[in-house]
Fold these 4 entries.
Entry 1:
Amino acid sequence: MTQGQAKQGRKDQGLRQSMAWLHTWVGLLPGWVLYVIFVFGTAAFFQHEIDGWMRPELSSETRVSPRALAAADAVLKARAGGAESAFVSMPDPRGGSGLELSWRMKDEKRGGDGNRVILDPATGEEAQVRATKGGYFLYRFHFDLHYMPVMWARMLVSIAALAMLVAILSGVVTHKKIFTDFFMLRFGKGQRSWLDAHNASAVLVLPFYLMITYTGLATLLFTLMPWALAANFPDRQAFYKTTFAAAPEREASGRPAATIPLTGMIATAQQHWDGALPTYIGIDHPGDGNTTITLYPEQGGWGHPSHNTLYLDGPTGALLPSTQPVKGGAQATWRAMIDLHTAWFAGYGLRWLLALSGLGGVAMVATGLCLWCVKRRARLHDPARPHFGFRLVEGLNIGCILGAPLGIAAYFLANRLLPFDLADRAAWEINSLFIVWGGVLVWGFARAFACTAARAWVEMLALSAALFAAVPLLNALTTTRGLGQSLPAGDWIFAGFDLSMLALAGGFALAARKLALRKARPAPRQRARREATA
Amino acid sequence: MTHLFTALPCLLGFALLLSAMARHQQDWLKRKLPAHFSRLLRITGFALLAVAFIIAGLGLGWAYGAVAWCGWLSVGAALTLTAQTNRERILTLLRR
């Protein structure tokens, strides 16, 4: 029996050790990508609020007045006549996007920015809004990355997310005392403290990590596992046609006929959807006898199926027959997973909880990456001259862990600093993000290879504190919606954003101060030891 | 309001779970509590977490409430951990 126990013990040790090895390497190699996904994904929970802050010209009004709809009709009639298609995007209830009109002329490429007009939802006046990708870019970056083909990026992100799942499970096995150490966080004990911090940030928010990683993979389902589609449908289009609602495609007749006004389309939608509003309206061949109007519904509450897409005949406003979407169990499960990941249903209470959990993930990945170095520094042959791999990881750690937030701060600052009518303004905001991030990477490597990484951490933390504190300051200087005005006015998008930036600045400043003081302390002790041995 | 009444039992539940552990009893009270009392603390702690789930489910709907409950669980555990980490400071404050 005792022999059996010993054997069991050895086997257990073997499993745990192999899991520890797996956890170390599966965590480290995609770790920097995971960190970036967590940072940008967390920001994406406040995508529309960030949109609102980055478009200070838009008022905080999100309800569309009949006057604005009439103005939109006039713009479409005057400027989108003869267009292939036109689109009306209603303002998001959380803010950040006015009443947006766009259209595409014949032989024009999709996604062009030329034919786009933003109207004030209340007055209907054309708003002069600075060009920016806003919070949408931060959201897109967390799975599409940037400066590289989207499909490659998604594969990379998928691999990192799969590795994350493996790291979570192997981490649970490796973490021997997951329950007895549940409340343990001991500071000032070197490697022990890093391990505690890594364990605590992982265990306390574990359900969220499992959920967000798994559902994140589910959103990329057709990228990761296209085989079920390939086996059952000749191509993607055929799948979409059978699965989602569609109306018969109609050619333009060439016979001009007035399209019904937007108020008419919205009234029809409300009639069929128990008063729900459309979020997006597509108009094919506007002003033609064969115009087709597509009305996309608001999402229903969580657990309630959303309404069906409606198709109307342009000149008469009559409902066109359409195929209905397939609503099976698999479809519902998949939808629920995507809803859970995107959290569009979350009110501000839940949204903040999700964002805090996201920050927990940021902390978990960051402490894990740091732990790799801390653990190996103690075992270095010559601590003054670490091997290449060690310096590489240390440089990457500084460059990513602080580079990503510094880049985001630069993105917000660029939004206020770049001239209004700069060519490719939105692209230059994004470039600013990566220029600063690249700078931090270079600086991190320079310090890591000069063996002064500790100084780089303090410097970059201090710089992060300064840049994040500068964001609300610059906002107050360049707009009329600084904290002094937004707080008394109850302008929560601006007040919330500026206060969050100050909180981040405070966090970075605290970390910089702690680190600077800690680095200063061991010196006298070392000197004392040296004197004692001499 | 439901958020508050979900958060409080979560926080209290984790505080009881902490106090049910012998190691932390030693930390806070400088002595260990009897085993049956620790067990009672542990059962009450878990019961409070369950109560929080029911409150969240009834108040916010079961689907939405379950997500919110997970969030408050994390916050409750994190706050308990923060208290445990700053134990010396809290004890000094209490003694004064």
Entry 2:
Amino acid sequence: MSETETHLEEHRDDEASKLGMWLFIFTELLLFGGLFLVYSIYRAQYPANFHEASLELSVTIGAINTIVLLFSSMTIAMALTAMQKGNKKLTLRLIAVTLLMAVVFLVNKYFEWGAKFEHGLYPGSDLMPLLERGHLLYFSLYFFMTGLHALHIIIGMILLLVVYFKVKNGSIHIERFVLLENGALYWHLVDLIWIFLFPLLYLIT
Amino acid sequence: MNNGTAKVEYVSYLQHKGKFKGLFSWIFATDHKRIALLYLYAIATFFFIGAILGLMMRFELIAPGETIMKPQTYNGVFTVHGIIMIFMVVIPGLSAVFGNFFLPILIGAKDVAFPKLNLFSWWIFIFGSILAVASQFLRTGPPDTGWTFYAPYSTSTGTSVIMATTAAFVLGFSSILTGLNFIVTIHRMRAPGMKFFSMPLFPWSIYATAWIQLLATPIVGITLLMLIAERLFGIGFFNPELGGDPVLFQHLFWIYSHPAVYIMILPAMGVITEIIPTFCQRKVYGYKAIAFSSIAIAGVGFLVWGHHMYTSGMSENARWFFSLLTFIVAVPSAIKVFNWLATMYKGSIDIKPPFLFALSFIFLFLIGGLTGLLLGSVATNIQVHDTSFVVAHFHYIIFGGMGFAFFAAIHYWLPKMYGKMYNFRRATIAWAIIFVGFNLLYFPQFIIGIQGMPRRYFDYLPQFQPAQVISTIGGIILISGFILMVYNLVMGVRKGAPAPANPWGGSTLEWQIPSPPPVENFDEAPVIKQNPYDYK
């Protein structure tokens, strides 16, 4: 081993890793912030259209997904606590439950989107340009925002899968769990963004 | 290695043998110094591609009408010139090359906080650059929107805009990761005893820059994603026919792209602040004022984007407010200029190539800044909006500022980076040619801009021809100056005399270690007791 590698190994700073993750989370929030801005502008421009269009969404499905995500946020937080207490088996189980919840969320989303697609409501469809302008923008925003959020769910799942296998092979352990902590932070971010998307798209009418 | 008294055998980062050999020992290196050189080579290459495209435009404009290319080709050339120069050269330029190399050394650290992420950023940068260059060669033709990708034209033109915007998005991601890495490095890895206010001023400027990279880039990221979605699926966010608003695109775009100007210029100011005390052997005048003005520029820079849009349709109140805020940015910028001048006052000035570049930076930056006031105030802006006056202004700021600071930095730090000296005489001649060529190229454009020569036009009225010819001659002189400068630097690196550890008598940390630096920068972690600029 050369000197550089050894110093990479020696040099470990959990505080720095966490600070880095928090900064990255800021950038993610700002990414969605741009979309929230666009949403608020078009909502102000076409309030009646937004009201009518938002009635098309199923509050039930949205609410189920909110609960699913909140639950998964709890399980990943519990996984972190289990790791801090050195219970590897429980940690693995809790991460698995979190991943399962993520799958449930995506399946739910698939059915929700599928129903819209059946009615011809999707970006690029023949029906969309015929809609009133506010409706068109509402559904475009709906697909763009929930689509980008779903993409983040998938990224979060990949991250948590990596964490899962690292816990399994022992490279994340009671002394060294900052990657698990960062994975959990990212998952909370995904959850948090949904907490904003849900009322904006489903509840405010 | 442990006894530091005798002349120790050290292994420089250039000779160091890691896990890999040959090319792989570079492109898989996690050493911040090697990554800095990777950026340097990549950026220098892109700079020359961009410069050649610029020269092609100059040749096209040497006479009215079609000279060497068709109008559509011209549109492609200025767009790609812009994309390469902005996203691949000036935005990453100083912070990725010199920030990577010298930030850890200047704060007494062994590396950046996340060395692997640092390498990853470079890979993303190269990937994005390949996409940008590839957008040239698609069958649909090079993008013709200008580097600003203004909607709704960018959503309707048939050229390969998606590839170019994806490239800009990817390059932005690289920029975010670099900024994030630097912020964490500065917070966590300063040498024992180094407080924020005993940090040298180049790290301060990198710190302010990193925050802009982190906070502004995601906005352009989402904007470009919306643009891509709009092209792919006919979503109407920015298309008035579908209920959207093209001015909204401009707002979102400039919320990033104006602060991006400060991503370019702040590290440049940082470099100048390092060079001037060294070559005047003076303590920097107003250390805290310079540090705070970096932060102030970064902060106010977020609030001035609207001055790009006076003619796009904004309320009267928004216009005067953006105008006021724009003028406010001049205050911290002027603080820096006055502090540089005050530092030089009664100094023992040593005129060497890096200092010449630094002085010409101040001169060109002043011209760029003062003409910026004409653009920042609504009334005069409306006269010169989208004329070649704007082109001259931002080339004075970006190229005369960031570009000259880059040349100053390379002449200042090359002995440290490679452990070799270049030829001073040739460097001075190259500087003189570049300086003359630069002014000859861009100054006439101020004049014809006021007279009404529009920017981005392929053709023009005959009365503008004399100025265009002078400009083109300036362009040729400028390019020949570059060639001489690069030749001199390359010859220096290959055959130059070995450089001493401290050729300029500098007092900051990088001059306290051998040239080129050892693999881990410092054999023993330095303990900081005094201020970085320890001159009389």
Entry 3:
Amino acid sequence: MSRRRAVVTAAILAGALVLSACGTNREEGGGAAAGACDTSKGTLVVGLVAPLSGPLSALGLGMQNSADLAVDQANQNCTVPGYALRLQAEDDQSMPAIAANAATRLASDPNVVGVVGTLNSSTAQTVQPILQQRGIVQVSPANTNPTLTQGEAYETAPARPFENYFRVATTDAVQGPFGAQYLVTTAGKKSIAVIDDGKTYGAGLAAAFAAEAERLGATIVAREKVGENDTDFSGVVTTIRALNPDAVYYGGEYPAAGPLSAQILAGGLDIPVMGGDALINAEYVPLGGRVGDLGTSVGAPAEDLESAKQFIADYAAANYVEGYETYGALTYDSANIIINSLVTALGDGDWSEDTRAAVVSAVQATDFEGAAGPVTFDEFGDTTNKLLTVYTVEGDAFVPLETGTFEG
Amino acid sequence: MLSTFLSQVVNGLILGSLIGLIALGYTMVYGIIQLINFAHGEIFMVGSYGGLAMFTYLLPTAIQNQWWFALPLLLVAGAAIAVIVAVLMERFAYRPLRNAPRLAPLITALGVSVALQEAVRVFYPNATAAVPFPKVFVEGTLAIPMGDGIVPIRYTGMLIIVVSLVLAFALNAFVNGSRMGRAMRATSQDRDVARLMGIDPDRVIVLTFVLGAALAGVAGILYGADLGLININIGLQNGLFAFTAAVLGGIGNIKGAVAGGLVIGLVKTLGGQYLPGGTPYDYVWIFVVLIAVLVFRPQGFFGETERVRA
């Protein structure tokens, strides 16, 4: 008898605890708006695959926070009728194999409505087929390698390999030549050494740069490769010094580019290093980047965009530990595109895995005014927004130099 | 071009003397207990991170900017932390396996290596990415004009060469001249007979780990000061080079470790410059040389043919 009473008491206590926990949750969840939302149909998941640890974690954490902001706002505004949204961020450590595991985890969840990411083009290559099998839409804010949307023969016979894959970042087929036009035509560098790290992103970007630079009349005096984990570049620097270039273009990411720049100076060459969007990072200068180094990035700097003012204010108000970094606004847009498309696809109906196809078509039909600018997708899933910006290092950070739209 | 050749030689000597400094730890531990301590590269990495932590969190800012004060402190801190980790490693990972078959401590060493790397990755703030290392020596480059160009030598690079050679000579003198050094040599020849002569082998083994780790810790600080950054992969990468250097020189031999280090540095930079394929293939040439040496002189440059013990 006494045992039964204990059980009943425990049950009542537990019930009271659960109720009070719910109550506090509602209050903490953003006041009246969140509490008022109808979430009776359950919780749907927005996935994110990005490097949350490893060398590129600064960029990845900025992406995670920006996507989190978009999901939070959707929950507070009751954007998805009947459902609550949850962000599930998976770490890919910038490694294709780990990204594949992350994608598999997300793909196995029937409640995943779409995936934001990845950061690296090489990780996107392993994530794409896994999400495609389950028909899950993927929107990348940062992949720039052209083959992801247009296939291996993108220059001659573009063909879209994955109908569920989209990106709001323009490609290296645009970014490389955009950098070349600046470096050769505007900055007047005629003799350029090109170095890359051999990864999908770096090698593709360097190739696109070199082709356009040569077309514009510059000489590519050297084509060198370095390892992405290397820290000592003195050998490469000595090799290119003998060829006396007046600029270096580096296809790769800031953890190698920063020290490379410092070692170019230490090796007796006082010439600028230029690179792509993976250089534009707060860590570039602490790792050795120098004043006068250049970088291009997709889109315009969020700080300069009228459309991004609200995003920046909201991000600041949310008190994230890390900054939103280069891809924050684009990630926020990617997440919002998925959420809006989900709303369109759901209509009045209930979520099931069959809804995913409708989400993909809704994303394809996107006509969206995002924080980073207007987004529509072409027949390959690429954004039609070809806005890019050249940055240069002043003091200890990159500052925007000029923003322009790339024209062939 | 002469200036290019000499520049690559300088680059090779800088890298090589650093590798040699790390290789001393490999070679001594092998000489005493025939253990290939694969975690030694991580001791180098931990020394680097440990010194940096001391610098960042304990040194007052006023001192941080005065290199003549900060650098010695940093070197001592890096060596001290490397020594602490190495002594703990010896006590808890290797000593229990002292009389186990030789494969067991080797595998343990690999495990310790991964554990140390992961520990730094998880617990050191921001260590998941490359970490900037403070400039704790004169910045800049000495440019020597050389006919068709210049040969630049980084001041930090000179520091590496000088410190490495001084320490290697000091170690050689210690092992060959001091009482403890004699005990080390005796233990390496025959541990049991050494014990009968009144030597405590455990003390000698700990001393060996301490000396090797101190040198690796110093190397870790010099490496960071030279390149301006460290990441958690530097232990694996440079440890592998150092292990190769120790084998090239004749594992167990102090002069051989330094010579092997210099050979690796020179092969890496000159091979990257002049051999087909360029710098992407420089690692290949290092291991081509290793294979060639093992085929034609398996005991290494300075090694003696291993005696079979009765």
Entry 4:
Amino acid sequence: MPRLAVWKFASCDGCQLTFLDCEDELLSVAARVEIAYFLEASSAPGPGPYDLSLVEGSITTPEDLERIRHVRRVSKRLVTIGACATAGGIQALRDFADVREFAAVVYARPDYIATLDRSTPIAAHVPVDFELRGCPPDKHQLLEVISAFLAGRRPVVPAHSVCVECKARGNACVMVAHGTPCLGPVTQAGCGALCPAFNRGCYGCFGPMESPNHASLNHWMRELGMSTPELVRIYRTYHATAEPFRRAAEEAQGFEEGAG
Amino acid sequence: MTHKTVRIGALTRVEGEGALVVHARDGRIAGLELRIYEPPRFFEAMLRGRGHTEPPDITARVCGICPVAYQMSACQAIEAACGAEVTGPLRDLRLLLYYGEWIESHALHVYLLHAPDFLGYDSGVAMAADHRDLVERGLELKKAGNELVTAIGGRPIHPVNVRVGGFYRAPSRRELAPAAERLRRARDHALATVAWVAGFDFPDVEHDYRFLALRHPSEYAILSGAVGTGDGRAEPAGFAVADWSDHVIEEQVPHSTALHARLDGETGYLTGPLARYALNSARLSPLAREAAAAAGLGPVCRNPYRAIVVRAVEIVHACDEALRLIDGYAEPERPCVPVEPRPGVGHGASEAPRGTLYHRYRLDDGGLVAEADIVPPTAQNQARIEADLRDLLGPRLTLPEDELAALCEKAIRNHDPCISCSAHFLDLRVDHG
Ligand code: SF4
Ligand code: SF4
């Protein structure tokens, strides 16, 4: 039986919990793979090598830099799950600040804390076979990724934007219908256009789509009344350091400077 | 002089990551540390400069297993700062959402993380090989909770529909109907769960806990209330959530790995199911009260191993109350009340499945967060868990180390420590002596 491992780095546990949230499928998946290493679910961790490693969380400490190399060495295939592992996650907001100042805000004795200046995705350190988006990922996509790797094929995960999912679901466009700012046009599909279905603008938790036109979106977001700081903040949340969102935020700031 | 160090390299079947180091010298415990090596994520620092509408979504990411708790404490703190209040059907919807999280979180802990300890398995999946029907019942129960959260919040982890002031869109009665259908079955499963776990073989241990839990005049407090404290014998003392920092102080202890919370100057109090039950058991739904009585719980439970029974009783209560709320649900006229930012400080606390979760925000003149403070349940329980472990290990230090390690893991799991939530936990090198 193929052997599966689930690893955690800096994260909220939500991505690996997505796996346990597959209530209907959990026992049938467990019948087809040996869950060899999954600390959150089992107190009997088995030694490597593993056929498939699912990695949650970003790299933020010196120890974890070492540990991810170990994980890569013992894994035949390595798949990152979620925004933390694929883009550094919310904790990557430290990249725009002084991490020592951050530590001083939270801890009376920041000198006890071993932490890196930046929060980096797994792919910045080791080769990654596939990156699954979402904060958290969609459980159907997660199951697709697991079954695809077990079957030795590439997972089928769309690269288009949330807008396409809105159309498929029959949502009215929240921008057109309600004038609500929405990151849907630049965000990768996968959630099923959840926020617009609740009359809310997308806040980008699945990260940037492949070729987003953020310049055009920024224009529309301003038309809908978003200020520059609001625009910068919406890009700088769960995927702040993912390249297209980083550029979109910088462009929003540049617009301000250009105008001023 | 004999030295002995028990190490549990990585705690399992808990949320997040931690380890335990115990030093023994001449047959006595010289040092004991529950070591948490969860990397710090600095939420309180990151929240500064964000808009007043942002903390519910952002703080949800502290913990994937109780995101609703973070959203509720954050919303209420910000609403308090802005002088707004969410009442009536919108408050009921919040409660409903929260019950959903309680059901799924408790079902996960009871069936997949905790019960295997009593039945001698390494995991829920391993347990399923011999007890498939039981594990399936647990998964069904968990699914009922997840479906309720999904119906109201859009998805079970980091729901998208919660906002300061209420919701983006209120669900229709029709949208809640399937969740209600499933909850009716779940309530039966929950009752069966109480009867099942009540029959486990529990170590005969009682601790003289000092409890802390929210208290509400008419509810088994989950969403809101004042803070109650006491030992379960005398009438509890209490204080307003806004006075939290006058009573609860977090300290960073140099030779310890985590912030230890002190309550009115004393260290080592307990929050979570045992605390809620001790201070509020009379306010459980009648069905949950009956189940508790049938399980032999009494009005206060001081045996930490029996926390699994209290959790099961709380699942009955959550199913029961959720059904009552759905039955009486009428779509509110508007999905949220307006919350205009203004400078000021707001406090909010609610009962995460693992215990009281406190948030405080100071908003500046521009309505942005100037300061944030989050006190999660595990940070509060840290010192008390260590005390439980001292009591457990003291007389047993001569046992083989692997046995000791297994015992400690079980004692820690009683408290369902959610280490990811412990935004304050440190990575600290200890002197192993
Ligand atoms: S990507 Fe989101 S859900 Fe996953 S671990 Fe990170 S914060 Fe949690
Ligand atoms: S609509 Fe956007 S923010 Fe909402 S769940 Fe989907 S990707 Fe995430």
